[in-house]
Amino acid sequence: MRICVVFSMGVFLLAFPGKVRSADQTQFKVHEISVEGWTLGVLHGDFNGDRLGDVAIIYFPTLGAHDRRYLAFFLQNKTSVFSASPSGLLELPATATQFQAVDLDGDGVFEILFVDNNGVQVVRFDTGSQTPKSRRLIRKNTIYSAGVFRGAIVENLAHDLSGSPGLEIIIPTSDGAAIFEKSDDGKYQLLNEISLTEVGARSSVDLSIFSDRSARSYVLEIPRSVVSDAGLDGRADIYFLSSRRSSLYVQDESGAFPRSADNTTIFTPFTSNEVCRSYLKDCNGDNRLDLVNLRQRGGISAKETKVDFYLANSAGFFSAVPTKTLTISQAHCGIELTDIDGDRIPELALPTIELGTMSAIKMMMQKKGSAYLLIYPLVAGVPQENLMVRKKLDFRLDYDSPRPDQEVTINWSADFNADGRKDLVYSDGAGSLKIFYGQSKGYITDEPNLEIEVEDAFRLSNTELNGDGRDDLIVESVNAGKANTVTVLLSTGL
């Protein structure tokens, strides 16, 4: 196999031209896109207007200056093959932090938005020059003005808040968030500024000053924005989710939002050693979003997971006390709230690892263990323990990683074989993706229907890329010392 090294703008890119693996199966055509660097995020959409899905990778190189980050475009051609080397490369500003791929003007071609210290820029792939070009879209001081972040946050910025042409854009500021709308002349103007103060409960101290209680660094959390009609009044409202709270801002008849939240739910108890994540989903079929908060605490010998369900009332508000709390004496490594069986009511699926003292010793000796996929049907919006289905899955932990369970993850949101049931994708931590087809009894098959070799997978996302209407899969892989890989699995329908 020929390996080519492409040098562009002082950045080395390692690409494998035309590398397509069938992996002893015909369900997917497997493409690998590799960069000699750290992958920070992956975006996808039709960036050149040919009605085929393309991939853009945010990364920084392992060769050269580590404080530089790049956006590399890999375009798909008519034969469903992705370009071997980048079709275009853009060096990102030092403070570019938050990214989204979106069809901003409704012409069928996707742009990439990113927030930096001075507001929002938009990147469009120019088909004439075959290069990505950026321009300033919004000028506004943001929370990223400090310029200390060197990663990438892939989160939604553009939302439809008004129902009129042009999407609104929400950006984080030092006071909370600013909402911009598109005016008649095509320019974006400020619609609202809202207050959203988050107080961190964690602190950190430099290693050289163990005896000093004062911290020289801090943790900054940017709440995620979700847009939905909370009260079913025909107007879009905004939820902001963080590890500590949920805040709902209700749009009034004039199209404006209040400065302070109409409804706030604080997740308690909140301790410094607790890992939290919040989700919004219609759990009971009333067309209103409900709130699910997942909390995990404890070390390797004593893990505990709690899942709190807050059901929305007629106004779309959440109470201060959860409707139900599910307690699991195991560590979770992901969560899926999705309608698995097609009844329009989601199920709760938790891949868990038993991490008691004896289990930990056994895993250390055998270098492998057992994961259990716990599937809870929801009745009246809350999980039913007596109806729980338990599936055993094998896994391996990477003990050299600071996150040994990072590669044990699932995706349960796609139907790959077009039978009307969602199929489970499971990364087992041993370099294998296992796909279990959905079925009417027991949710999935007992054994995997497909196994595809993909090393160091840590993020799975499904989308439709090649225009055939079938779900495809994007897998992000990160491994120190190796070329980071984005694996695209295009469904063949066979």
Give the helices and strands, then pairings.
Blueprint lengths: L3 E5 L2 E5 L4 E2 L6 E8 L1 E9 L8 E8 L8 E5 L13 E4 L6 E5 L8 E6 L2 E8 L4 E9 L13 E2 L3 E2 L8 E5 L3 E7 L5 E8 L28 E5 L8 E5 L3 E5 L13 E4 L8 E7 L8 E8 L6 E7 L13 E5 L2 E2 L3 E3 L8 E7 L3 H10 L2 E11 L2 E2 L5 E7 L12 E7 L8 E6 L3 E5 L13 E4 L3 E7 L8 E6 L6 E8 L3
Parallel strand pairs: 9-13
Antiparallel strand pairs: 1-2, 3-4, 4-38, 5-6, 6-7, 7-8, 9-10, 10-11, 11-12, 14-15, 15-16, 16-17, 18-19, 19-20, 20-21, 22-23, 23-24, 24-25, 26-28, 27-28, 28-29, 29-30, 29-31, 32-33, 33-34, 34-35, 36-37, 37-38
What does this structure look like?
With 494 residues, this protein is mainly β. Helices cover 2% and strands 44% of the residues. The chain contains one helix and 38 strands. The strands form nine sheets. Strands 26, 27, 28, 29, 30 and 31 form a six-stranded antiparallel β-sheet that branches. Strands 3-4-38-37-36 form a five-stranded antiparallel β-sheet, with no helix packed on it. A hairpin with an 8-residue loop joins strand 22 (275-281) and strand 23 (290-297). The longest helix has 10 residues, at 357-366. The model is unreliable at 1-24 and 199-213 (pLDDT under 50).
